[in-house]
């Protein structure tokens, strides 16, 4: 087969899939609206089920729904028949995917779904099938033809189901109070670039996790606090919470070299006053830039008045270990 023939075949497949999507797009109507309304009103989750290739599409739709704020899970039909049906509880909505609408494993589950009070939404290419007749809402995902020349391997039909699943997830998103920050909370393992787009307030350590003592504390108390919190530093604050200084492991080594015995020294003699800080509403990328420029691994976070708001560690910025969000 020549290069031209290969490319022609590939473009033909894409043309068939585009044709299928266009067909399904034109058929979308009131049933799709009803599906969105049912899911929005449901107190439970969206339980998606499908066999074979439809099951793979279902798993992807589950992932998309969940990441965009609609709780969802995948239920394998065969496993459901052997105990996993217990995953479906009252208030759930079942989304069943079957191009033929005749998948035995799925249709065998329909009475049980209904008996548990679950609404059933069908993605099918056969509106006159057992699945369609049992469903509360039928979304016609039928395509004119498959891209497979044998008409056997699901191709255009699975693409259509996947696209309608995406449309459902995004349509639901439009009616939810779901922000970019919520999306990031659902993606704590994202790329470094995405991590650094969040505000420092979202990743900083706060409260009891912050190593801090008042400026009137003793050096013994400051070192004990440093040991407890394990960040290699302790922040020095005034009685009203204003950040006055920082003592790091390096400061202790330098003080020991200079003074010998340091426990009897005042904190003000050991600390670095007016340490580098970052405003809590700045981006994490800016905090990283400050840390790289000054070769430091911890950075105090302050508010508008210079009061201590938290602390950020280099590992939190780079994603080593758990990426900690404020909740």
UniProtKB/TrEMBL annotation:
Q: Does the keyword Transmembrane helix apply?
A: no
**What SUPFAM superfamilies does this protein's entry cite?**
SIS domain
User: Which NCBIfam families does the entry link to?
Assistant: kpsF
Any idea what this protein is called?
KpsF/GutQ family sugar-phosphate isomerase
Matching entries from PROSITE patterns are given as: CBS, SIS
GO MF terms listed in the record are:
arabinose-5-phosphate isomerase activity; carbohydrate derivative binding; metal ion binding
* Family of this protein: Belongs to the SIS family. GutQ/KpsF subfamily.
Gene3D superfamilies associated with the record: CBS-domain, Glucose-6-phosphate isomerase like protein, domain 1
Q: For this UniProt record, give its keywords in alphabetical order, as a comma-separated list.
A: CBS domain, Isomerase, Metal-binding, Repeat, Zinc
List the SMART domains hit by this protein, alphabetically.
CBS (SM00116)
Question: Domain SIS: where?
Answer: 35-178
Q: Where is the CBS domain?
A: 204-264, 271-327
A GO BP annotation: carbohydrate metabolic process
- Report the source organism: Thermosulfuriphilus ammonigenes
